């Protein structure tokens, strides 16, 4: 098992594309200055020692060193010892809507990101409870089987986006059915938490919730979005290029369907909570779940982790030393070789 002691350092890797743009801008400015001096081919012959590909080599080298340093700061750790431990808790499956309507920004920064952050905070507060994750849009898929490994759960949560399910729609019923299959056959108290805007459901979620209740599993629903709704952003290469439109060219507005979610919660003997910009609703649901009877179970966990930051820092230091030999101009040692000059006559 691999984990990072402080994953927040890894966000600094997002600066690498910015470095690339700045470096490319510097190259363009350098070319403009050279053109102002005179003919570029003539200047290249007059200054054969000026770097060409070496600039890019050095940039790639610096970027690699930067990456190694950031990973070293995050301190990757490897689990070295497995132990059987006894825990006490309930089993939870969170069914998260990942349809494109979850990109609407009536809940900041958008519905999906708000839900992911709330789930991540929920995982931080779990003490012995096991958690699984199901994602759904037009179809439902198991993203994470039920586990007590909270570090793995948070990693999986971070990877969720609207692209993980190719079929669009909102199949709440299928998500509940798949969540039922995710539970292990045991005497533990179980609950399903459905987080969705509830719009455009493609099946019968109320019947699925009734089936769950018949099996002793409560279904809670969290409506994420506002009743007045919001347009659905459309992205290309990570940039917003507009909003989704219907066949008539009108902007599609996605609205929270509270009525359906209330019916699902009632059929599943749970509660319905609406999320807003100040709270995601999971806290209220978790209070109800905490009142459920917690059962003992055994699980294997890594009790010891060994630091591996030193390998990344050592490798970064090695490449820094290598950089000494990659300079903008040829070294004095290489300059002893008369490569570019014509051999002079002794009489001159």
Please describe what this structure looks like.
The chain is of the alpha/beta class. It has two domains: 102 residues, no CATH class; 214 residues, von Willebrand factor, type A domain (Rossmann fold, 3-Layer(aba) Sandwich). Helices cover 39% and strands 24% of the residues. It is built from eleven helices and 13 strands. Strands 5-4-3-6-7-12 form a six-stranded mixed beta sheet, sandwiched between helices. Helix 4 runs antiparallel to helix 5, helix 6 packs parallel to helix 7 and helix 7 runs parallel beside helix 8. About 2% of the residues have low confidence.
Descriptors:
six-stranded mixed sheet, 39% helix, 13 strands, alpha/beta
Low-confidence stretches are 337-344
Residues in β-strands, percent: 15-25%
CATH class of the largest domain: Alpha Beta
CATH topology of the largest domain, what is it called?
Answer: Rossmann fold
Number of helices: 11
Number of domains: 2
CATH superfamily descriptor of the largest domain: von Willebrand factor, type A domain
**Estimated structural class:** alpha/beta
Helix content: 25-40%
Helices and strands, in N-to-C order? EHHHEEHEEHHEHEEEEEHEHEHH
Radius of gyration: 29 Å
Strand order of the largest sheet: 5-4-3-6-7-12
- Could you say what the CATH architecture of the largest domain is? 3-Layer(aba) Sandwich
Please give the alpha-carbon distance between the first and last residues: 73 Å
* Main beta sheet strand tally, sense and closure: 6 strands, mixed
Based on Cα principal axes, name the global outline: flat
Number of strands: 13
Query: Mean pLDDT, as a whole number?
Result: 82
Oligomer: single chain
